[in-house]
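Give me the 3D structure for S-(Hydroxymethyl)glutathione synthase.
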Amino acid sequence: MKGQCVCGQTTFNVQLKNHDVHVCHCFICRRQTSGVIMTIDIKQGSLQFIKQDYLSIYESSEWGERGFCNQCATILFWRTKDQSYCNVNVFALDEQPKDLNFDMEIYIDNKPEFYSFKNETQKLTESDVVALFNGSNQESSHN
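Predicted structure for S-(Hydroxymethyl)glutathione synthase (143 residues):
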């Protein structure tokens, strides 16, 4: 599956793990997007950049990093530093699968009260996410 940033200067190929869409309510995602980011999991190691002259990586925590185009600022992915897990901005894909399933909200305890989704989703707190990706004995305030 192909994807790209808004300006087309950063392009990639990727294989989706499934068609489940996740929303993140963490402070960084809300600040970057003025809302939430919607992502989809990819198969490990499948993110391959075709054009990457403007690709930048931001170290957002001790265990996570974000990729974006530094020409147009499109957020492209979030991954663990060891690259054992990666998700991509679902709207950076050139075409979204027809059967997308909005199934999970993470950092739900960081979500402001003034908005909500009507879909029934699995909801993970910040500590749930940290435990999943970093082990329960280490700390992080953002992914």
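Residues 24 and 106 are 5 Å apart (CA to CA). Let me know if you want a second pass.
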